[in-house]
Amino acid sequence: MIVIADDITGAAEIAGIAFSQGEETRLLCDGSLCGDIIAAKGTTVVATDTRSMSEAEAAEEMLRIGRPLRSLGEIGGALFKKTDSALRGHVVAELAALMQATGYRRAVYLPANPSKGRIIRNGIYYIIENGTEKPLSETAFSYDPEFPASTSSLRERFPDAEERGMIMPDAESAADIYAVVNNYHDGHTLFAGAADLFTAWLRKGCALRPQPVPPPGEGFAWAEDCCSALLVCGSTQSHPDAFGLPVSAMPLAIYEGSDDLTPWLDDALPKYAAGPLVLSIPHRHLTGKAVAVRLRRLMASLVAQLFLHHTPTHLYIEGGATAFAVLRALHISSLEVVAQPAPGVVSMRADDKFIVTLKPGSYAFRPLHGLASSP
User: Fold this and answer.
1) What is the pLDDT averaged over residues 275-299?
2) What percent of the chain has pLDDT over 90?
3) CB-based burial, 30-39: b 16+ in 10 Å, e otherwise
4) Phi and psi for 118 in degrees, rounded to 5?
5) Would you tell me which of 60, 141, 314, 366 could form a disulfide with 226, CB atoms 3.0–4.6 Å apart?
6) 334: nearest Cα among 358, 351, 347
7) What count of Cα atoms within 13 Å lies in the side-chain half-sphere of residue 230?
């Protein structure tokens, strides 16, 4: 099975689900490798970072990656397209290009995640938080710097989806998700959506072939393995102070336009030498795609400079676009899944050197429990 994701934390989340189902799982950060592993065993998840591209660039990337996968069905394989659960990204353009490249006749697009309180009713996307149901456009996602949720209606967000062969069903429960998979699982339909849809799709496929044996435990010590940890908070949804660790924040001058990282590096280095460190961007007053691209480039550059001083045992990153930029800066193209500490939070081994844990910024999870410095 091959999964194509539009950002790396979404890719990692899917890789964690496949791993938990007993699949031998790898994550690639380079789509050009996709054709080389088409007949590989287990599940390969490809992180493309197309959410950070223009719509035209994203569609072209799907064509490039998708063409070698046209024969996937002939060898008994299957393809899934992972999309954001909050309607972000160039969804229609990417699905149309992928259908064109691979030959799928239609697509089912279902971004609902009922297990996380994200549902679709009568074509309207709702998020349930603390027992309160809110339309997507009335949540923090309305402030997303690149894909602000200006509407909660799927048909308003994607007005040309249906005419381009895409079905957008409702789903308020796990049963609804499984019903959709059962209704459209015909070998000619490309499934695209969030983690709950992938779980149902994976289990449907697993039921049609011998069950894999779950991988044995590797003795991976989640918290204890992180005495030298670097935590990168690149999402607008991040809360770096919640970790209870030293924080090095991007200086305001750099945030507002300076590309000289020296002041930030001077602040970060002594803290990093002393133990676990959190890197954050606390400022929020600048918005737009160009700003977001610049900030993650600078964050990735700082991480690469810190790695020159020493490699941490554990690199933890919140935020998909930031994670992709950081791994690219570190020249990491392939990762092996070793643990899933929590749903959506996935730990992977990078070249037997250190552990990388990725988490979407909007998912609540506190890692490194108990590692705060003692008074």
Assistant:
1) 90
2) 57
3) ebeebeebee
4) -120, 110
5) 314
6) 351
7) 28
Q: How many CA atoms lie within 13 A of 117 on its CB side?
A: 14
Is the pLDDT reported for residue 358 higher than 60?
A: yes
Say yes or no to pLDDT of 211 above 70. Answer: no
Task: For residues 36 and 161, give the distance between their C-alpha atoms in angstroms, rounded to a whole number.
Answer: 31
CB-CB contact of 125 with 169 (8 Å): no
Q: In whole angstroms, what is the distance from residue 268 CA to residue 50 CA?
A: 31
- How large is the average pLDDT for residues 324-342? 89
Q: What is the pLDDT of residues 135-168, one digit of tens each?
A: 999 999 998 878 999 999 999 999 999 999 999 9
Burial class of 179 by CB neighbour count within 10 A (0 to 12, 13 to 18, 19+): middle
- Per-residue model confidence (pLDDT) at position 356: 92
Q: Tell me the pLDDT tens digit for each residue of 19-71.
A: 988 888 889 987 666 555 655 678 899 998 898 899 999 999 999 999 888 87
User: CA-to-CA distance for 152 and 119, rounded, in angstroms?
Assistant: 11
